[in-house]
Amino acid sequence: MALLPTFAAIAETSGPFVVGQVWTYKHRDGDVRSLLKIGAIEDLAGKPVVHIGIIGVGFSCDPNLTELGHLPVDEAALRKSVVKLVRSESAFPNIEAGIAEWRANNGGVFTLEVDQIVGTVEQTVCGSSAL
Q: H helices within the chain, ranges in order?
């Protein structure tokens, strides 16, 4: 059984993203306690890419799958998704290996909002059982 993340709100959405920040976001119905963490920020072809990790998600096909280790997200899409900057002692996955693999493979960037990304990942992982 996965531990639910805990947090305390500290600010509304404003200012630039900073590595290490933890945010609540507009989540899917079942992911009420889900949080995301900024792991890295870089420029890709003149546009900021924010690398995030997510905890506290639920997947219909595997109740033990509760986190997403690395998601490269367009900064504008992420800004539309985040709600509050929070303090959290929750453990997040290390995303360094995911970033290295993404760079080595010239990976793409999600332009969807975070709740839609999580839904897309669930459909990919779980197949038709996620529908």
A: 75-81, 96-104, 114-126
